[in-house]
Amino acid sequence: MARVSEFEPISIGVLFSETGTTSVVEQTQRDAVSLAISEINESSGAGQYALEPIFLDPASDPKTYAAQAEKLMAQSGKFIFGCYMSSARRAVLPVVERADALLFYPTLYEGFEFSANCVYSGAAPNQNSLMLADYMSENFGERHYFVGSNYVFPYESNRIMRDLLVARGCSVLEERYIPLNPGVDEIDHIVDEINKLEPDVIFSTVVGEGAIKLYQRYAQKGQARGKSPIMSLTTGEPEIVEMGVEAAEGHYTCAPYFSSLPRAANQRFVAAYRSAFGPQAPISACTEAAYFQVHLFSEALKLGGPDAILHNLPLVEYDAPQGKVRVDRTTQHTYLTPRIGRVTPSGAFEIVYDHKATVRPDPYKVEPEASGWSRFVGGA
Amino acid sequence: MAHFQLKSLRDLFVVVAHPPDPDSQLVMQQFKRIGCRTEAAWPIPRDLPQATDILVAAIGHDHHKALKSTLRRAGARRPDVIALADYENPAMLELMLDLEALAVISKPVRPFGILTNVVVARNVSLTNKALVSRIRRLELRMEGQKKIAKAKAILMETQAIAEEDAYKIIRAQAMTKRISIEEMADAVIYAHDLLSGRTSAP
Hints:
The structure holds 2 protein chains of 2 kinds. By secondary structure, chain A is an alpha/beta fold. Chain A has helices at 23-42, 62-74, 86-98, 129-139, 152-167, 184-197, 208-221, 237-243, 245-248, 264-277, 285-304, 309-312, and strands at 8-15, 49-56, 79-82, 102-105, 118-120, 143-149, 171-178, 201-205, 230-232, 252-255, 317-320, 323-327, 334-335, 339-343, 349-354. The radius of gyration of chain A is 20 Å and the shape is globular. Chain B is of the alpha/beta class. Chain B has 2 domains: 7-112, 3-Layer(aba) Sandwich (Rossmann fold), CATH 3.40.50; 135-195, Orthogonal Bundle (Arc Repressor Mutant, subunit A), CATH 1.10.10. Chain B has helices spanning 22-34, 64-74, 90-98, 114-159, 163-176, 181-195, and strands at residues 13-17, 37-40, 54-58, 80-85, 103-106. Chain B is elongated, with a radius of gyration of 26 Å.
């Protein structure tokens, strides 16, 4: 990194957990940021600037996130890339707002938020729940079962999904919540209830370790397994590796990105990521969002320097692994391409639905359209 | 009981009556994000745009009178007022109370909290409207009951009959004449006043 000294350094705080309940995904986000920064620095991609990351481990704990964000602000950092759970984002935002800094948040979330000091690059509900509701109601039965982790994202996601499904003539048999770190008993209680109710589809907003345990127990004890799939917005490639292919096979996830996407930009990204972090390293939509938002940032930096990032970001269109992405000026959320993947016996996602166009982010949408997209845009 | 349906959020028409500055700009932008139709109105217009649901209004002595008369002219179509306030001193608070503001957005404006304020204000306003119309219904009913009691008393006294029979007579007459029992009671009271030489209306 000798050449870095010739450039103007831009300090980048990176807040992803290497330990704790959601570390499985967050480590991949950390790695993606690290990869993007090396790519940019090695190719002088940010013009006269060099990105200098400071990596911290907030350990999946909101209070630690806030404390570490304070620390980064004190070190004159103006940019933070980080956060997975909404509770972490909500802890970091006040710190970032006080310092008039900028948080780049690369994770899907429940919507209904705007901070002038945040750029959101994961999916808003109108970029995933809508498409998943269409797919679920058109390809499976009418009886649905909801299970989620006990925090804000699952509650709001379930409210939205319930409205969407009811508008499509479906019913929700039960809506259950389990702790973020559930015990075996709590998971078994859910699987037993699924066995008793025999729903056609299970919509799961269980995240992190809980999701891994849930899929594993469902594979071992679930009588409807094979017939009633689990649908998720969050279960990605890293979770699949963790839970094992036997537990994941046949289940579905809706996301703007899967590492199996046959795009040239994606193949380059996957090759670079795996050569840096191991040939089997799993890559999910959250990983990809963490990666492309650093590139969006560096393009905006090149256009007008560190003080004009927010002004220039919406002018940048970047060919991300998922396709073209762009930040919407009004909402500071990102145009993304929704897709649905099904886990194959090899553990990869087979794309069963591709929206084939970006969807404008609409984070304040209370009631998404009752009629489905997929009736107008054919699935893959 | 919630009277406001979140689903109707995007049907709301919001007018922002505030001098154009970064704060009012932020408020307008946030309403745009939420998805409400939004218009700026400054100086205070004589009449608000048709079908204004929410008026986000600057609080200040200079334009207070104009704001009050604009709201008065709106009559039954008076919008819900949300104050956009920069001071908390009693003089300013009095203006805010005088406008019957249902919620407050404080300056400097932050996007967070605007949606919550709109939802709370709208719900309070709809709840108030429902209560007022309920009170009106109850008042009318009470008025009617009083008339019926008086008419019954007249019949009981003049005809020397029991209360129950007096009521049956009033009801039967009301049905024959196809009018309400309250109207029939009115007629009894009026006739009695007339026959007994009294001039006061019931």
